[in-house]
Amino acid sequence: MVSKRLGRGEGGRRKFLAVIDETPECGRAAAYAARRAKASGGAAVFLYVIDAADFGQWLGVGDIMRAEAHEEAQTRLGRVADEIREAVGLEPETLLREGETVEEIRALIEADREIAILVLAASASAEGPGPLVSAVAGSGSAFAIPVTIVPATLTDDEIESLC
Fold first, then answer.
1. Mean pLDDT by 10 residues, the chain (163 residues)
2. What is the pLDDT of residue 133?
3. 145: closest CA among 96, 102, 110, 94?
4. What's the Rg (C-alpha) of the chain?
5. Which residues lie closer than 8 Å to 74 by C-beta, 6 or more apart?
6. Predicted structure pTM score
7. Which of 8, 19, 60, 95 is the one with CA 20 to 30 A from 120?
8. DSSP E strands: which ranges in 40-136?
9. What is the DSSP string of 23-68?
């Protein structure tokens, strides 16, 4: 059970959480989250989750792999944040965590009571909406906050008109 959200009446502000990864569609989620945040006087939070399971079996090499993964994740987060700053004029909060993505999303939502909406983007691929959207839409993965799924095919102008 997620703790009660901290709304504007309690001095909070609505935060839109977008998950950043290496998929091309995550930029659409970030754009939507930032534009909705700006339009509603809220904030955008961008989360990148590194899969910690990738490092455990490699012993000494695991530390090097972890450091490289953190550097790559910071670069990706920075690139997306820069694009949003330029396009939307909003300063996003960026976070980097290690673990299993769905569980880290849950933990962040529980920890930050201002996060009110999770924004994901569905892949335009014929193979399906993507692993994260599939995991969130699957049984047992429901969140106690609304989830907005943005089609990867939306342009910035289309996103702007929706926000």
1. 63 88 93 96 96 65 79 94 95 95 92 94 80 71 83 92 90
2. 81
3. 110
4. 16
5. 96
6. 0.87
7. 8
8. 43-50, 93-98, 115-122
9. STTHHHHHHHHHHHHHHHT-EEEEEEEE-GGGTGGGTHHHHHHHHH
- In our burial notation (b when 16+ CB lie closer than 10 A, e otherwise), range 67-78 reads eebeeebeebbe
Closest among 99, 56, 37, 49 to 76, alpha carbons compared: 49
pLDDT for residue 6: 64
Report d(CA 7, CA 100) in Å as an integer. Answer: 28
Edge-to-edge strand list for the sheet holding 115-122: 93-98, 43-50, 15-20, 115-122, 147-151
Q: Taking CA 45 as the corner, what is the angle to CA 40 and CA 49, rounded to the nearest 5 degrees?
A: 155
Q: Which of 67, 61, 73, 71 is nearest to 104 (CA)?
A: 73
Tokens linked to 61: 């090499």
Q: 111, 119, 99: which is closest to 35 by C-alpha? A: 119
